[in-house]
Amino acid sequence: SIDPIMVGQESTYTINVLNQSSYETFTVTGQKVNIPSNLKIVSVSTGGVISGQTVTFPQVSLAPGREVVRSITVQGVSAGTVTTTMETSTNFRDTPLEDQESTTIY
Fold this sequence. Notes:
Largest sheet: 6 strands, antiparallel
Structural class: mainly beta
Oligomer: single chain
Distance between the termini: 15 Å
Order of helices and strands: EEEEEEEEE
Strand content: over 45%
Radius of gyration: 15 Å
């Protein structure tokens, strides 16, 4: 995503999920992205569901070497430095993978 952005400017978060295994399929059982209130959700890629400031992507199975790319386009609505968080659940981990991205809006 672009950082920093101006109030009114759009930026796109791109989420790449890649199965680096050479022999085993795995399933992303859930993916949830929490967008701070300083950002307005403009659009999401196919399958994404917007609920308030949260975007949820559906389950997907990935064969070895396969990748899925998802995106969320946002617009800055008020100044500040914010952190977008993401949780990814899979069929092979007991706890979700967590990631975050900071964005400054001016």
